[in-house]
C-alpha cells in the first residue's frame, strides 16, 4: 500500500465514528424539549421577548407606541437578555472508560461522548458557547463547533484512569466533567478546588457500569485494569464484595461532599439507564440550577 493510500485509509477509519456519534447525539438532543432557557429574561439584547404594561419609572422612550395604539393601555417592549455563557467540557478518555460488563450495554466512554455532544448541541441551540478543556478547543457557537467537538471526543488515552484537565477553563465560566472517577480522588479534589477558586460553576456526572455498582462477581475471578497495567486474581470474589461496596460508597460520598463544598452539582448515571434521563438532568442543571 502506498503512503497516500495508507494515509487515506487511516483518515477514513478515524473519521468513521463521527457520523454515527453525531447522529445519535442529535437524536438524543431532539428528545429533550427545549423549555424557556435561563437566559430568557428582560435585559440588554436585540431579540424581542415580550410586551408588558407601562409601570411607574419607565421612560417615555421605552414605550412601544405602535403596540400601545391598539388598546387603551400603554406597553413597553422588552428585549431578551443576551449574555452568552461559556461552558467547558472534560470527558474522561482513559482506558477505564472503555469498560462494559455486558455486550448489550454501551461502554462508559461511548455514553459519556454521546451525552457530552448532546448537551453541547442543546447549549449551542440556546445561544451558549461550548468548548473542550485540554483540547485547544476554545468555546464557540455554531454547527462547525459541534463538528469539532465530535471529532475531539473520539480521541482516546492509554492511561488507566483519567484526571480532570483544567486547561482552557475560563474564569467565572461553567464546566461539565464526565468520568467514572475511579482514579485518584486527590486529583479530582484539586481540580474542583482550583475551578471553584476561579469562580467556575459546574456539573460533575459520575458515570458507572451497573457491574461496578453491584459487584456481581463470584468464585475464581481475575480483575484486570482496562489498560492492562494492573491485575488481581482471587478464588472467592464474593469475599471482596462488602469491602468494595464500602469503598465505592465512600468515593461517591466524597465526590458529593466536594461538589457541595465547591458549589458544583453532582449526578450519578449508570450506563444501563436511559441516556435521555441523564441528558435532561444535565440540561436542567445548566439551565436553572446555576445562578447567572
From TrEMBL:
Pfam families in alphabetical order: DUF58
Which residue numbers delimit the DUF58 domain? 50-252
Superkingdom field: Bacteria
Q: Which InterPro entries does this one have?
A: DUF58 (IPR002881)
Tell me what this protein is called: DUF58 domain-containing protein
Amino acid at each position: 500500500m502506498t503512503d497516500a493510500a495508507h494515509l487515506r485509509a487511516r483518515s477514513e477509519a478515524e473519521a468513521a465514528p463521527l457520523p454515527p456519534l453525531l447522529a445519535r447525539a442529535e437524536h438524543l438532543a431532539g428528545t429533550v424539549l427545549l423549555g424557556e432557557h435561563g437566559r430568557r429574561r428582560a435585559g440588554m439584547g436585540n431579540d424581542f421577548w415580550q410586551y408588558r404594561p407601562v409601570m411607574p419609572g419607565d421612560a417615555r422612550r421605552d414605550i412601544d407606541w405602535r403596540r400601545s395604539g391598539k388598546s387603551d393601555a400603554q406597553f413597553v417592549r422588552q428585549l431578551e437578555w443576551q449574555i452568552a455563557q461559556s461552558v467547558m467540557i472534560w470527558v474522561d478518555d482513559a482506558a477505564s472508560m472503555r469498560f462494559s460488563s455486558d455486550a448489550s450495554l454501551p461502554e462508559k466512554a461511548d455514553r459519556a461522548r454521546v451525552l457530552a455532544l448532546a448537551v453541547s448541541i442543546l447549549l449551542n441551540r440556546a445561544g451558549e458557547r461550548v468548548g473542550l478543556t485540554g483540547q485547544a478547543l476554545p468555546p464557540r457557537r455554531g454547527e462547525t463547533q459541534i463538528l469539532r467537538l465530535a471529532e475531539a471526543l473520539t480521541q482516546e488515552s492509554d492511561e488507566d484512569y483519567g484526571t480532570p484537565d483544567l486547561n482552557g477553563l475560563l474564569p467565572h465560566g461553567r464546566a461539565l466533567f464526565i468520568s467514572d472517577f475511579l482514579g485518584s480522588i486527590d486529583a479530582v479534589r484539586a481540580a474542583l478546588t482550583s475551578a471553584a477558586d476561579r469562580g467556575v460553576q459546574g456539573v460533575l456526572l459520575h458515570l458507572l457500569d451497573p457491574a461496578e455498582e453491584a459487584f456481581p462477581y463470584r468464585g475464581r475471578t481475575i480483575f484486570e485494569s482496562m489498560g492492562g497495567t494492573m491485575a488481581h486474581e482471587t478464588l472467592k470474589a464474593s469475599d471482596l464484595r462488602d469491602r468494595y461496596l464500602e469503598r465505592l460508597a465512600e468515593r461517591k460520598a466524597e465526590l458529593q461532599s466536594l461538589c457541595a463544598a465547591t458549589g458544583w452539582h453532582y449526578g450519578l448515571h449508570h450506563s444501563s439507564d436511559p441516556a435521555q434521563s441523564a441528558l435532561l438532568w444535565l440540561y436542567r442543571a445548566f439551565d436553572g440550577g446555576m445562578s447567572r
